Amino acid sequence: MIGNALEWYDFALYGYFATIIGQLFFPQFSTVASLMATFGVFAAGFIMRPLGGIIFGHIGDKISRKSALLWSIYLMAIPTTLIGLLPTYEQIGWLAPFLLTLIRLTQGLSMGGEFTGSMIFVVENAQQRNRGLYGSWVVFSLLIGILAGSAIATSTCYFLSKEQLMDWGWRIPFLLSVTGGVIGSMMRRTIHEPEQFTNAKRHHKEHASPLVELFKNHFKTIAYVVAVELSLSIGFYLIVTFIGNFLTAFLNMDMLTSLAMTTLSMVAMGISILVSGWISDKIGRKPVLISSALAFTFLAYPLFVLLEGGWTTALFANICLSFIMGVFFAPIPATLVELFPLTVRYSGLSISHSLSMAIFGGTAPFVATGLIHLTNNNASPALYLALGSFISAIALFFMKDRYKEKLV
To answer: Could you tell me the CA-to-CA distances from 303 to 105, 182, 256, 384, 393 in Å, in that order?
Structure first.
């Protein structure tokens, strides 16, 4: 969990500093153009996630869960540190956005196996009665990483002037990730494989090619996971990445206020995550997931409208959106682990989750910015979230709830 938190700190920083990165690494035609270019590079990182899912999924199913988790942290910490060392567009021209894109692609490769590997590792080590709660702690650790990124970004903005921040201050949070990489890799060397996985390896139950087995016999499950995760992939990146930059770029809120608002909203999400994971062990995954997906369907638009009503209503709306997101997100690890059998679980989760995030998650801020530009309606991104959540609710209605079954 601590390693996962460190990785998500690295990944979240790009979103928090998207406005500054847009000004420093892309030609300045307009605020919307530079922000869309920045979010375009953000989306590019997600293109690599399915490939990362294939690579780390094979390692995790065929060789070792531990090895997959260890290598994923190297591929996140090193590129994130390099962002803090990159020259800007003014210094090296087109090479600046080119190198930034290469770094984002490497980060995306890492994320293709990191988060799903963490959920599998924790849920496989849990007992049947608390898989939802244990899985929610993986989501909670993700949030801790994002909160750490938010807190350090907020502190950097608070203690430095705007000129210092633009000149060199924005680099500090990225450079700090080298410390997280060292700590995370040291901790992951000490963990042990889940007992269920070691027993399967001992009896040579793994498939010669988990990927072939997965697409031959479990392709429908992959498509099903993508549909279920629409609410998560669109909602998470709109709430965590897009709204903060939306408040500064479109509503002219200062960056410090926006970051502080994001931090408070993440606290609300953290509270709902732990409660929701525990409840899903008591009443099942479906009631929790369907109710929160429907909440997004009907409440997303009015809450996005409230974002424009001043900082108090914007804070209220942000907290509500984050709370609903936490309720939906918490049961996801246990739900997905319970859908795939042991021998293809790492590959199945990594690929399906990565596809969902690549197609709908990484593009969500870009699509949201484009929708606002096309419709002149600042609340239009909510319609995208509402539609995705409605599809998720329908898919979840037909899902078999396996919360009382033994993992196989």
So the answer is: 33, 41, 22, 13, 19
